[in-house]
Amino acid sequence: MIKETKAQRVERIKKAKDGLDVLNDIYRYAKSDEEIDMEDIDRFKWYGLYTQNRNLQDKDDLTQYFMLRVKLFEGELDLKQIEAVAYISDNYARKTADFTTRQDIQFHFIKIKDLPEIFAKLTKVNLRTVFAAGDVPRNVVTCPVDGINKEQIYGVKTIAKNINRYFDANPRLSNLPRKYKVSISGCNKYCTSHEIHDLSFNARETEDGEIFFDVSVGGGLASSRRIASYIGYVRPPQVLAVTKAVTEIYKKYGNRDDRNRARLGHLLDLWGVEKFIEILHKNIDFVLKKEDLQECTPYEKREHFGIHNSIEDGRSYIGCSVVGGRIGADGLYGLLELLKKYNATYIKLTTTQNFVIADVPTVNAPKMVKKLKKIGIEAYPSPFRARTLSCTGMNFCKFAISETKELAEKLIIYLEKRFPKFNEPISFSVNGCPNSCAHPNIVDVGLLGCKVEENGKFVSGFELILGGYLEGEKSNFGRKTGIKFIPDDALRIVEELIKDYIKSDYKNFHSYAIGRTTHG
Predict the structure, then answer these.
(1) By the 8 A CB rule, do 110 and 67 touch?
(2) Which residue, of 323, 349, 379, is where some domain finishes?
(3) Could you give the CA distance from residue 177 to residue 265 in angstroms, rounded to a whole number?
(4) pLDDT 10s digits, 291-305
(5) Cβ atoms < 10 Å from Cβ of 82
(6) Fewer CB within 10 Å of terminal CB in the chain, N or C?
(7) What residues does 485 pair with on adjacent strands?
(8) CB-side exposure of 61: number of CA atoms within 13 Å?
(9) Distance between CA 136 and CA 476 in Å, rounded?
(10) What sign has the CA pseudo-torsion 300, 301, 306, 312?
């Protein structure tokens, strides 16, 4: 018998039973001792569940634990929702809770038997996990200060809600060729990083005050590494129609024979941009107009840290840093207590594993910042702390080669001590495998998990990637340097890198990183 390819297996599983239909099975498995069918485990992704690496389990613990991802529409959590996720973290997830790069929150050590209670807890506060993973439209990301930022180009809340309503648990979209990522933003800082999404919309304002949205398609990371192609602009009421048309085109024509060549960007490469636009125009009743793209904010400046006056009089928002998104039950409870104490009512997550407190009374903001610092949350983070991403890592992820979260924290603390006066924006990623969950190819310094030979044996380690950068059409992906090292050497390697930059004649670290990969 000819062995199935990975793509053939996945497509067969999806045809045999829709991922949306596995919910009843989840409840059945939770209430019985029945062994879970491996094909149903694949379908569990449609409800945000992934099997967890067994690294942190006791040898005599045979439990199958899961990671559970909860989708947060527009990255938002109100007080009741924060209390609910803190409770889940504390009671069902061994106090784990991480913010993700798609403005979601995820937990570890989840047991199948606890899922009915967890789902009930989430439903009570209007949270859910459906379409948080799988071959579906993932969470639509937006600017965390949309609607409250005085400098925004355009508020996208209504448009984002319409897109989410179209995507949410839509059975027509429960079997796409692969995952599908969309962003929409009216942010003047381009903070959603439109260059790496399958489909993105960015607001622009003309000289006479008209608002349009630039449309970009085909961005991606890892094996789908590609800077999105700009295909034109549309008016705000046309955004949803473009979203529907592009999604249907991807569903119909996306590659289902090779999962490594199955993202929308691969279809763009196969067809070419002009053919894609031609087919898109056949599926909408208007024409995308095209002109030169506007200049956009460089990647390292796409943040909203610190205290800022809101559009609402007497209110401010506070951009906050969390190392690698690792907030945990204690962090969530501590944050909840401060929100209540200082009369703020909700937060919004960012695409860099950080968050914004959206509506604190202005008079309370400085006091709140001081209290946040005491629980490890920085409103004015160091350059090393501000933009350091890290993926789930080997402790929990079955694909990871190296551990990440703890190393990221050690790296930040070490660099802050070694370079206390360094004040240039710089971005880092600690990524546990060749996949790109922590975006190692778009940061200044990426640590990419790989096997490293030491004393004749291959052990967990990293390869150094330098020079990643996002700025519209000026974007470039970081390059592998060939420098590989074990985790114990990571602090020294990065320290030497920064020392070398400080002694150099380069005007900024990005230029230095590019120079290192070009000239050695």
Answers:
(1) yes
(2) 379
(3) 12
(4) 776 788 988 889 999
(5) 21
(6) N
(7) 462
(8) 11
(9) 27
(10) negative
